[in-house]
């Protein structure tokens, strides 16, 4: 008993700091470990986190997280927008194999076919890859042979209606990062100035994503495009293309807007159930001019807000 009492006295005589000290977790030393912690902080492909939330979930210092996230954004492992951070193209592609393109193409296939049957024009589905769009599908019968687009082919996004519809869903600084080296020209009508592109994208946002293009990608051809959206932003775009005819794009624009919404809702049910398609008006009807094209989709503005 006496010896036990001495042992207890010796324990009590130890410095309080020694007794109270809890083992501290060692922070991972390598960049790979820290990147892994940050990627693991995102529960799924649609997770959106603030800087503080990432720091809290990883246990890393806020300054360290901010520095690493900046590098991961540049390398497209993570995307940064007004809401915070989400997984980027590279991270999503590891889990999806084809970055989810097969699922997008499957959801859009019937809608593209119906668009072609209703209008006789060539329907496209494309996704953004850096500053270009990559065509996932093309439906158009004999007219399709007159267009240079092809499944798997690439074209500068800013030269197409489909690409501009997707770009309009990005933050301006993201667009700047894509085209820091300048804008390439395909025809003499292609936008080649970044400030002009930003103004064009602003007009597209006012039309809730509806984009127009005449002779910018291919002389004599015109397109109208709209974005396919997830809750986080655009994941693809669709378009109808054909020979340029006055007033024709504005006439078919509502069909493209409706089709893009239907594909979005099939891919992301949380956006709401797909709605019945809009019927094409008679040629004798009075159609909107380009400056009032926003009114064509004004009744659906809330769906894209």
List keywords for this structure.
2 domains, six-stranded antiparallel sheet, single chain, 12 helices, disordered C terminus, Arc Repressor Mutant, subunit A, two-stranded antiparallel sheet, disordered N terminus, Beta-Lactamase, alpha+beta, 305 residues
Offer a quick outline of the entry:
The protein is of the alpha+beta class and 305 residues long.
Average pLDDT across residues?
81
Strand order of the largest sheet: 5-4-3-8-7-6
Overall tally of domains:
2
User: Strand pairing plus helix content: what structural class?
Assistant: alpha+beta
Percent range of helical residues: 40-55%
Fold and architecture overview:
With 305 residues, the chain is of the alpha+beta class. It has two domains: 2-95, Arc Repressor Mutant, subunit A (Orthogonal Bundle); 99-304, GAF domain (Beta-Lactamase, 2-Layer Sandwich), CATH 3.30.450.40. The chain has helices spanning 2-12, 16-20, 31-40, 51-58, 62-74, 89-96, 101-119, 161-167, 172-178, 194-206, 248-267, 301-304; strands at 78-81, 84-87, 122-129, 132-139, 154-156, 211-214, 221-230, 233-243. The strands form two sheets. It has a six-stranded antiparallel sheet. A hairpin with a 2-residue loop joins β3 and β4 (132-139). Mean pLDDT is 81; it is low at 1-24 and 281-305.
Question: What's the arrangement of secondary structure elements?
Answer:
Layout: H1 2-12, H2 16-20, H3 31-40, H4 51-58, H5 62-74, E1 78-81, E2 84-87, H6 89-96, H7 101-119, E3 122-129, E4 132-139, E5 154-156, H8 161-167, H9 172-178, H10 194-206, E6 211-214, E7 221-230, E8 233-243, H11 248-267, H12 301-304
Antiparallel strand pairs: 1-2, 3-4, 3-8, 4-5, 6-7, 7-8
Helix pairs in contact: 3-4, 3-5, 7-11
């Amino acid at each position: 008993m006496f010896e036990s009492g001495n042992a207890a006295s010796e324990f009590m005589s130890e410095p309080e700091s020694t007794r109270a000290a809890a083992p501290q977790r060692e922070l991972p030393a390598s960049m790979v470990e820290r990147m892994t912690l940050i990627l693991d902080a995102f529960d799924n492909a649609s997770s959106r986190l603030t800087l503080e939330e990432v720091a809290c979930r990883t246990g890393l210092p806020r300054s360290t997280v901010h520095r690493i996230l900046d590098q991961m954004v540049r390398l497209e492992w993570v995307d940064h927008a007004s809401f915070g951070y989400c997984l980027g193209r590279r991270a999503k592609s590891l889990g999806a194999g084809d970055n989810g393109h097969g699922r997008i193409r499957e959801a859009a296939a019937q809608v593209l076919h119906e668009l072609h049957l209703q209008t006789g024009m060539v329907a496209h589905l494309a996704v953004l890859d850096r500053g270009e769009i990559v065509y996932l599908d093309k439906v158009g019968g004999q007219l399709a042979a007159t267009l240079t687009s092809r499944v798997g082919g690439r074209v500068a996004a800013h030269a197409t209606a489909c690409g501009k519809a997707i770009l309009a869903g990005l933050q301006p600084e993201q667009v700047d990062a894509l085209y820091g080296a300048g804008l390439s020209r395909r025809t003499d009508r292609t936008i080649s100035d970044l400030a002009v592109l930003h103004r064009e994208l602003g007009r597209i946002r006012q039309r809730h994503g509806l984009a127009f293009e005449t002779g910018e990608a291919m002389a004599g051809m015109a397109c109208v495009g709209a974005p396919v959206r997830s809750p986080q932003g655009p994941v693809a775009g669709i378009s109808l293309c054909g020979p340029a005819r006055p007033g024709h794009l504005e006439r078919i624009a509502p069909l493209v807007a409706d089709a893009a919404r239907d594909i979005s809702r099939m891919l992301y049910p949380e956006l709401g159930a797909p709605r019945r398609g809009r019927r094409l008006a008679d040629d004798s009807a009075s159609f909107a001019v380009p400056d009032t094209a926003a009114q064509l989709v004004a009744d659906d503005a809330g769906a894209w807000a």
